[in-house]
């Protein structure tokens, strides 16, 4: 984690630049909830202005107000952009003014090509007929500006998430953007793609395009921002000038949570026992591509009470390894054994995996972990209905009691367990998913990116939960793309590169450098 | 929570539809000069629409699971003709005929279910094929002629509760059924309330529960009175009894059992359900199979009422059933819907049909109006949900969880596709 001075490459002082955006006293209410209360923010020209806050603080809501998703009239307060009062009635109006928002969930159509996506809704037409030649030429220009070298006719689903993010930026540039809003731009990117993106944003700043960035990655915010506005519980807490106030990550955290977090990770004295779970020579083929292997002869062990980390770049094969072990729910199993408590077991499907004491918390809770139509209590019991039913009839009293138990234990922030899970913040949704798996009382719990998209305070709580599970004698596998996180909670870390396990490091041997070295190269034959 | 509320699903949308139903009844009561709420007419209504409501029970489960079944009309007709033929040509007694019908329905359901669940063909296509296939089969076996059925068999479609006991001027059994229903409602609601209080769950104020009970019981008693005072020889129709048991049974299964949970889970988020240990393929298979069995039953009841099975039976039934389900609150994308809701939706269509007929409106105009009502019902519902209304109605019926914020179109599958690729 290199600390780079924010202004190493440019010379102008942001505080002297003219103001291009002022949001004044924005208040936005939903039935029963005041999402924003008297929030104000000022952005200058050629500035990267970050917004920080815990999940549910109101950052996304504020940006939706700015970009016109919540139209003029649905909020109180004023937006003044380039000295003009704005009354956006939809996104098109804000884009017309030069404000473009790139959401965390990219708004690209997977089946359409890069060109088609860049010009989506914005096609160059003459008398209603699209001029694709012109579009293609312009696309090549834009792609060069953001650093893409793909064939512009490639369907967007075939390029990685990092490149998709660049397509989104190209799309924004095509709309003559003056203020670019980026919501969690590097959340799904690996280290190198993240850096490339941040460099690109800095380059845009040099060309006069201001940027508002919402992010949880404090090191990145510290790296690129000129100013930071911190929002908590729908109110502006403070605005910091990064250079002048000498802001660092701890300072940001203090603003966000209202106190200094002593440590990022709770204290933990591991109580590690014997090896109880072992995977040997695990080989799995790609589900669609015939000759490709997603897991190449992987072997690893887990001890009781141990937290094992899986480190690897995006696409290295960590999720594939975990899911293929969890009841063969991914890929074509080819060979390999799973040995639990000394006995070899075959897990042909998910119910068998659960029965044998495995649990798997998916990477993407919204698409794979939760039924967003359900309420908390239904979700909590959904992986172990048998425990609360008699002769297939569900005991609603028991369901409620179980849900309440976990709500209290995990301190899920919700008025009641009858609330729909879609109303919870990311961190609390993750707690519900954890509760779901804890209720199955697994011996081995696999957590795939358990703190992605979750604020600092909730992360701390989840680390505590993970450690508590380990203390109960369970084995926990944590898959994460955040190396500091893995280093903070794991007892041992396996590194994976291109489907193969390239090394294993103990807590005291591991560092970001030693991990990264093994994550980016195949194992040298020993 | 109490059994009835679980049956209702606690959905404001449904309650809105109950209001619509009541409004329609009142409207037609006025326009037809009071004919719609006469004993003979309500009896006709139940007789004439019960088979569609039975189809709607099966259809709502299919739609909740995220599928659809277009073959039900043809399957009903096919089972009808086969049952009629086997009873005539093999001399089977009426109860064996019913067994044959249900088994045949199960076989057809297994066939279609296999393709949907295990081969992975979209249900729309499989059941579309079924619709054509079984229509043809009906005409092949029946040689496009009508085949009569015995009077014994006709009982299930045209029979009534018998007259027993002292001569009270009413049909005693119907009265008995009515009183039992009222007693069950009161007991169920109060017991559920006691349980909720014991758990520490927030309960609605007592007066709300009492008012709700009073209204429900009054309606039940009034309806019982109507059925009990029909022409001599008529009372609550047998198809209605069958429907009643099915509603209770399926309502219970969908709301309170693990298989019911699985159907909602698979419909709400198929991947998450599979990764939580739900056997999603088996669930798909079962809902399709169940639909065909109920289609067979509906076909038999229709044949029993019409005294014969004919080549044009069942045409258009699937659309009526689907309309009932959507008016009743199901979502096109699956994961939402209730059995009781579909019954209310079906009753809205039935009352509409019946009322327009009594008013002398021709079938052409009637169809136009039905189409517009279906559209209006769903528009009203979507509007209602997007307003996030908390109202007196909302107080009485708790909302069944909120849907995700529809503001942004999210390209979720994109990330999924990429994960799979890498």
Automatic annotation (TrEMBL), chain B:
<dbReference type="GO" id="GO:0005886">
    <property type="term" value="C:plasma membrane"/>
</dbReference>
<keyword id="KW-1003">Cell membrane</keyword>
<dbReference type="InterPro" id="IPR001851">
    <property type="entry name" value="ABC_transp_permease"/>
</dbReference>
<dbReference type="Pfam" id="PF02653">
    <property type="entry name" value="BPD_transp_2"/>
</dbReference>
<keyword id="KW-0997">Cell inner membrane</keyword>
<feature type="transmembrane region" description="Helical">
    <location>
        <begin position="115"/>
        <end position="134"/>
    </location>
</feature>
<feature type="transmembrane region" description="Helical">
    <location>
        <begin position="169"/>
        <end position="187"/>
    </location>
</feature>
<protein>
    <recommendedName>
        <fullName>Xylose transport system permease protein XylH</fullName>
    </recommendedName>
</protein>
<keyword id="KW-0812">Transmembrane</keyword>
<feature type="transmembrane region" description="Helical">
    <location>
        <begin position="324"/>
        <end position="352"/>
    </location>
</feature>
<keyword id="KW-0472">Membrane</keyword>
<comment type="function">
    <text>Part of the binding-protein-dependent transport system for D-xylose. Probably responsible for the translocation of the substrate across the membrane.</text>
</comment>
<feature type="transmembrane region" description="Helical">
    <location>
        <begin position="48"/>
        <end position="65"/>
    </location>
</feature>
<keyword id="KW-0762">Sugar transport</keyword>
<feature type="transmembrane region" description="Helical">
    <location>
        <begin position="285"/>
        <end position="304"/>
    </location>
</feature>
<keyword id="KW-1133">Transmembrane helix</keyword>
<feature type="transmembrane region" description="Helical">
    <location>
        <begin position="15"/>
        <end position="36"/>
    </location>
</feature>
<keyword id="KW-0813">Transport</keyword>
<feature type="transmembrane region" description="Helical">
    <location>
        <begin position="93"/>
        <end position="110"/>
    </location>
</feature>
<feature type="transmembrane region" description="Helical">
    <location>
        <begin position="207"/>
        <end position="228"/>
    </location>
</feature>
<dbReference type="GO" id="GO:0022857">
    <property type="term" value="F:transmembrane transporter activity"/>
</dbReference>
<feature type="transmembrane region" description="Helical">
    <location>
        <begin position="234"/>
        <end position="253"/>
    </location>
</feature>
